[in-house]
Amino acid sequence: MAHIAKENNLSIKAELIDVRKFRFHPDTYEIIITMNSLFFLNGDDFKTIVENIKKSLKPGGIAIISSFTIDDSLFKKLENTANKIDEQNFQDNTGNSWFFLKEEELKNMFSDFEILFYKEIIAQDSGHKEWPEPHTHSIARIVARK
Hints:
alpha+beta; Rossmann fold; 3-stranded antiparallel β-sheet; 7 strands; globular
């Protein structure tokens, strides 16, 4: 990836940090990408981070966000294993949180942006370390321009 950026005279800065502690700067970034990670926040933090993303994009900047919806199989699994805080939020006994979007909620969060792409899909997952059985994910995906 670094060589592609260099060949195209692009600067990429990557940082590993809890997004709740990241210092967003207004009108700074050309693109911000969050893929299936914000749902590990509670709903208030999720919405705050989306607002911070929107404010920190330069005019013409792009937000690409993907997150799980309430139709996700993990939502159903958490109903049996975690504390349901409200209709979209869960928390376990160790403080881990999960927030699931309602239908078109992510799209509505970007109603003041130009929506370049929006889709809610059901994706097959063949399994992974944390959940080895095959399952599905219900995912809302958006690409929006400030």
